[in-house]
Amino acid sequence: MKLHKLLLSLILIFSMGYSAIAQKQRPNVVFIAVDDMNDWVGCLSPGHAITPNIDRLAARGVNFTNAHTAGTYCAPSRASIMTGQYASTTGIYKYQVYHALYPKLVPLQSSFKAAGYETFGAGKLYHHQDGFIDVRDWSEFFLRTERQRTSGWPLDSWSSEMPMPEQGIKDNSNRGAYEGGSGLRKWGALPNDQEDKMADAIRTNWAVSKLKEKHNKPFFLGLGIYAPHLPNYAPQKYYDLYDRNTIPMPAQKDDDLDDLPEPMKSKMIKEARAYNRNYKESGLEKESVHSYLASISFADAMIGRVLDALEASPYADNTIVVLWSDNGFHYGEKGHYGKKVLWQRTSNIPFIWAGAGVAKGKSPDVAVSLVDMYPTFVEMCNLPKPKQKLDGVSLAATLKKPNKGKDRDVYLPFTEPNAYAIINKDWRYIKYADDSEELYAVQEDRNEWFNLAEKPEYASVKKSLRAAAPKTFAKPARQHIVKRDLVIEGERYHWKTLK
Q1: Which of 100, 28, 20, 84 is nearest to 385 (CA)?
Q2: I want to staple 44 with a disulfide (CB 3.0 to 4.6 A). Which of 39, 164, 305, 358 is the partner?
Q3: Would residue 127 show up in a list of annotated catalytic residues for this protein?
Q4: For residue 93, what pLDDT band results from cuts at 50, 70 and 90?
């Protein structure tokens, strides 16, 4: 009997010791999101933006040059990242709130919490409207104002107390965007001494303060930077980094849209005419690109603050840093201004990993997706597998040995069922819900100017790429309406059940 008790005690001690070691060895995670940042950053091609901090992160980690968003704009992309499931699995194709519709889905921060992590969040990790932040399982989620905390946690990145450009007229419909020759002009330089009053700087400084604290548990620190999302307001010094007269403009081709299928062709020709009228013909094209580049450089400076704080902390050697953008942005490519399309400038985004368990100074061109983050964290941080099936694949092996990474067909859902893109190193195949198609040989046609979909010699290529798409597509989920369905309860809120 005594021997039996002794054995039980030894087993208990061993298991407790093993658990403590496993807990200690789990890496911390710094999870940095930027908004609408396309592949113009310095460490990617064409590298128009001045981004020394993003570049140094890439130099000490793995810089995926062929990485793609999980949705063609903010809300569905971020829902996919936080749940690990594509819109075609959940039905969250547009502005649906995943945690209101599917409360049993285990979000990313909850998996970290279940693994014993402290979880800290700030800024735009979710969509920016009221009620979109999934408040569950955050040890602390930073909000700047009491009004945010008691009104459904909206981001209010450009609310009335934020500094604004001195020139122009405020346009309240765009939370501070101003008009100056065009109602679409949403940019301007701020005085340099106003930088730390900006919402992004306030949130970044809070994240830095967390890295200066003592943590007895591993931590997951998420920081969502709103820049370079419109309005492109940035301190003057970031504008001064660029000579507007020498800024390279996005490549365009006069008859680019002629080989698109209908009705996409008519729609995009109409958009291109609007872009030409509002930007090119009005002389604002270079000004808009300049402001976007300045905002990218401002976001880069915020990232630099976090990297500096991490490197000065005791956590530098046991922390994974991940940088990602929810989607890219077009500035005239294919006549388009914005996102919500399936072309390269929307889908290809900065996606950089560095730190514990990650190789240094590698830039693999294998196709990957932001939806791969969740399963990668499960493997690298020893998280419990969530109950839901994860649609992505773990990148842990590629992060450790990038040269052995294998290319694959990456799926990108559109804004409705049965519409998507399939992307790999050589091809981008686009299929719309009406079965119309586009096909681009991206190695030879980087600008996607020549649609090959109607050429019979590429039928087998299309067939192979179509095979990578889901066999079934979820119906679009019901969409909550903020003013009607959001119920505020002090500092908390919940959504009404949709019937």
Answers
A1: 84
A2: 39
A3: yes
A4: very high
